[in-house]
Predict the 3D structure of the following.
Amino acid sequence: MPRCPWAITEPNLTYHDQEWGVPVHDDRKLFEFLILEGAQAGLSWTNDSQETENYREALDVFARKRSRATARAM
């Protein structure tokens, strides 16, 4: 399959081949994409993609805190 013109170096090659255009149905993954897109606004995707793991860790902390708060409210 031909690649898009922007997919010429890593990490863009891996992103293009493994994530770009692949349907996602997992709510957590969709939320992750939403957060990353907002963080990327106006920036180079390559720079933002290097922070993806940091965002995932932050989202995990947020999810755990929210789960605890929800459990306490019930």
Notes: The mean pLDDT is 79. The first helix runs from residue 12 to 18. The two ends are 51 Å apart (CA to CA).
